[in-house]
Write a structure and sequence with these properties.
With about 425 residues, this protein is mainly beta. About 5% of the residues lie in helices and about 40% in strands. Keywords: Repeat, Ubl conjugation pathway, WD repeat.
Length: about 425
Amino acid sequence: MCDLFLPDCPIDNGTKGVSDGLVEQLRPVHPQSLRGTAGCETWSVDFSPGGSLFAWSMGYGVVKVLAWPLPNSEEGGDDVRDAQLTDKTSDRTLNCGHTVWGLAFGPRPRKRPGATSHASYELTEDVQMLFLATGLNNGIIKIWRVSTGEALFDLKGHQSVVRELVFTPNGTLTLVSGSRDKTLRIWDLTSTGRTCRVLSGHRGWVICCRVSPDSSMIASVCSSDNRVCLWSLRSYTFIRHLAFTKQSAISSCDFSPDGAVLAVGSYGLHNSAGWRVDLWDPYTAELLVTLEDCCSCEPFMNSKTIKTLCFSPDGLFLALVVDHRALRLWELGQNTFMMETDLTTFHNELCCTFHPQEGIIATGTRDGHAKFWRVKPMIPSLSHLCRAVLRFSVSTHQMKAFPIPQKLLEFLTYRDTPKRQKTYCRAHCR
């Protein structure tokens, strides 16, 4: 069903601002009559919690689960060959029967930010305890056993496309789903009958939802609302809105690994300003930082939207997928991107995710490809690690009650950076 090939471009040498970080690609083998037609898109990709597996929605209702590192990739050290010839005991092809919009591995164990130990997961051990959830075009969520590729059961309740799926990062089989029926549902996969809680209140399609690292909060956005909704995962109730201007369309959100920051991606409507990323304090609803698009690219702003974003596992970087500029990697506090893809080439990325341990970002494209990009390795500072560990357990309200110096408090609550930051793309870097 897929080919594995290395691109004709150099590997990233780690220099800041380099755009040639593409390591490899997975290309689906669709019949000629189907290539480029509706249904071939890769709407979702995901790595398993231990990083030993990669799941890829390759279009037309097919999901491929592959062992990571990929066969014959740079990590594998062998010559490139057709991925159809790889070990069938570890690779799975899941035929879902309908277009797959969201997918997620679970359960996801609780992981404290700043942990220096990278557990080595054996593939067979990892697979035995893993499930894969796939959200389909008809509103059904299929649950698969990864070790066998067996479809275990269906979750029914959504009345339209299941756009987003995420397992809570606390080691349980609790699944959160977001749908075009304007609702979120919280499923307990261990309960008899697999009942769910329904969260309603959005005025349009739910296109993104994320769970905080301590599994206490859900953030969700929809296609026709200029607000972010925050929900309690403990009481299943609405908490508050984070409001934006009516000229903005919100497209994505993600919690930092310590849960102290919520990043929200949006873009201007009706020829207004380009994309922007707002960093919020989810505890106080205070806007911390606004990252704006390159001001020198204004002639093209009306065609630039932000598709999705996600934090790196260490919280140092934020990956952005932007129309016509594909993938950009931003280091918090900087006004230039540490990595961006080739600006002279048209890109059509739709989704992205970080490998949990290696410096790799995976993206999915509109034509069904999965691409892998190398990220420049960086060692987190001791101050960053201490803040991440502390904020994972302490809310902003609790932090403000500590008798500590003001500058230290500002650092621990992410209030020590400029409120507004304009970025510069590689073409206009100053």
